[in-house]
Amino acid sequence: MKSFGLLGEKLGHSLSPQIHNLIFQELKLEGKYDLLEVPKSRLSTLISVLPQNYGGVNVTIPYKVEVMEYLSSLSKEAEDIGAVNTICFKAGEAIGYNTDYLGFNKLLEHNGIAIKNKKVAVMGTGGAARAVLQYAADKKAKEILIVSRKPDEAAWHLEKFAKMPNTRFLDYDNLKEDGLGDVLINATPVGMYPKDGVSPAGPSIVGNYKAVVDLIYNPKETVLMHYAKEAGRLTCNGFYMLIAQAVAAEEIWLNTKIPNSVIEKIVKKLG
Length: 271
Ligand code: NAP
Hints:
The radius of gyration is 19 Å and the shape is globular. By secondary structure, it is of the alpha/beta class. It has 12 helices and 12 strands.
């Protein structure tokens, strides 16, 4: 039996065990996925003993950055983003990955949304936003707008992106005045259950973009997505990304390729 798990501080409502158990079912594999709640004071000790019983773990709030100091090495994406959400234990090593980046790639591919040479606006400057920004930079977006309630502070925190020639830091009023763009991405929790019914951007901003991606997956249709639909824009939520990042973690742990049809089946089952 292969054992994996999720490392975090409070994991009560996590969907991850259900998702990973469905992946095991699809792969006809005997696997187990545990919730590993740990207080900050015990994080390093736990990571040192985990390889005895686990092939790998996912990492969630608030440990995605802190965990990095206990790892032997990092994948290129995890290093570039500065956050890890998946660890693989192999031959005495603990290697860190960022499958949010890989899941976001699958979400865009699935919805036919391209980034290369496009003007992309990313709302939010937290962990998910960093993965999205790195992806946009790697995929050679023409222009990247980083939208924050405090753009000056954000430029300081995201110094690496501030140094890129094609990035600009804006607040939400600036975004409204900025005119047309290609892809608008919500990487804030604004609009997420139970505080749904609000949107980080109003209809006038949404109408300026050709495609609108919300990383939120609960509710299925956020107010932001509703505005996008009303304006006749292409839009999608983050559910496909959630499943795709879990599948990407299994690919790393099992050292195998898993077809997109597995993601699609699980999206249908749980969606
Ligand atoms: P986070 O680290 O807390 O960052 C969220 C960012 O949103 C903050 O840095 C902040 O940027 C902005 N923000 C927070 N509250 C806000 C408010 N009231 N109004 C406007 N902006 C606000 O969160 P995260 O981990 O990056 O996650 C962000 C969202 O992505 C969540 O909804 C999460 O569920 C979703 N997500 C989805 C997936 C998936 O697989 N689909 C994966 C990861 C995350 P400023 O302070 O600069 O404004």
